[in-house]
User: Fold this.
Amino acid sequence: SQQGEEDPQALSIQEGENATMNCSYKTSINNLQWYRQNSGRGLVHLILIRSNEREKHSGRLRVTLDTSKKSSSLLITASRAADTASYFCATDAGSSASKIIFGSGTRLSIRP
Amino acid sequence: NAGVTQTPKFQVLKTGQSMTLQCAQDMNHNSMYWYRQDPGMGLRLIYYSASEGTTDKGEVPNGYNVSRLNKREFSLRLESAAPSQTSVYFCASSEAMTGGSGNTIYFGEGSWLTVV
Assistant:
């Protein structure tokens, strides 16, 4: 089974609203990453948060990490039509920094 | 700067045929990966190579073999293709520094494989 599970599986919001998606994982990690995938394309890295960090910002993105709950959230503020995509969290396997496992993803749709 | 290049982009195979997906990166990365993505699903790790000369199984290795030919190249082989292997395959690479440091994964554009 996959290390990370995103919630919700799908999210539809109005342009300008904020979008929040969550990721839960099972084992200890060194870091957690979020990626975006436009339909039919490869994944693009958005942001990385290390296990000793609790919050990180990058532009309109805000990521939080709660290692005690083994969960992370990605907040996209002031959403735009171009944010329509699938979003995935990815974690290493703790014991192996190179073994990167992806979650099942959240499909985000932004309504104009 | 090409990044991660994988070939072929599209392939149709008959059940039982074999084929090799090729992947090369020009970023001098240590680690390389092969993932598969089924429609509407997340990525599942097939095999990865933490560094040149090493390969390890991921989440779904059955039916696949890999070769880390050199630091640049990492190939994925299907010895006897099955319809269940119909999927989009992504090659990826990262610096993957030791000691648990974080790393960003860079993906190729994907290879669409259909097994009939």
